[in-house]
Amino acid sequence: MSVCETWHGALHRLQNEGEAHVLATQVTSQGSTPREPGARMVITLTECFDTLGGGTFEWQTIAAARSLLQARQYGFHVEAFSLGGRSGQCCGGYLNVLLEAFPGSSANIAVFGAGHIGRELISLCAPLPWNVQWYDSRAGVFDEHFKRQVRLTCHSPYELQSSVATLPPNTHALVLTHSHDEDYALIAALIERDDVASIGLIGSVSKWASFEGRLKREGYSDQQTARVRSPIGLVHGAKLTDKTPYAIALTVVSELLWLTDTPSSQENRGLDPHVLRTLMTDSTTTTS
């Protein structure tokens, strides 16, 4: 249990850093309870911040929160406690805890190249809920203000093979370095990984035709080369006439938004209405 950070400090930091977490709030209280409604704590898979009062019910709350994180069940959930029954605590009161489970970053993005377009891309990604890994083989190319951007990790210089090998599964990779040879080596390494979510290569149709022919001559299959999207940033299959770095970056980020979009299959959003009515009208009926 962390004692160095308050729940609101941890909540702000975790939201910025994109780490999955649960905000636990005591919302009802009847009889003798360790704390009053409004008490809060924040829970991750490995840490806790602040307290709901301690005791068995708090450990049960932590276990429930971590089960939600492990199962990726995000949204609102209610846990009900009879302190003398379920939790075996002598104070014997009743309370309900609202668990708000946040997924953290919704996607992992890897950008290879810190040229003009790469810089615009990174700036446009800043407000989005993505974890971004940014690579360039040249030393000293990252400005200090980029290094302070949340959910962004800069790698310069980097070792190509190990960097590609250690990308998290389901990463969306974009290749736009200053060197065609480096672009080709990255594409060859990326298509060998079956678990990369998408692979985008900047450049013209003729550049990709050249790369594709070379890859096939070196033994890569049609299935592997078909995973590469090039040129990147096409909108409805059409190319922009505006070739400024910002315009290109804007189309690429728009394309990524579609690629990373995962609509919810839940028909009901938030708390089930019946659970909410019960919670708000009679807390004792849900605490046995």
From TrEMBL:
Residues 110-256 form the XdhC Rossmann domain. Residues 15-73 form the XdhC- CoxI domain. Pfam families: XdhC_C, XdhC_CoxI. Signal peptide: none annotated. InterPro entries: MoCofactor_Util/Proc, Xanthine_DH_XdhC, XdhC_CoxI, XdhC_Rossmann_dom. Gene3D superfamilies: NAD(P)-binding Rossmann-like Domain. This is Xanthine dehydrogenase accessory protein XdhC.
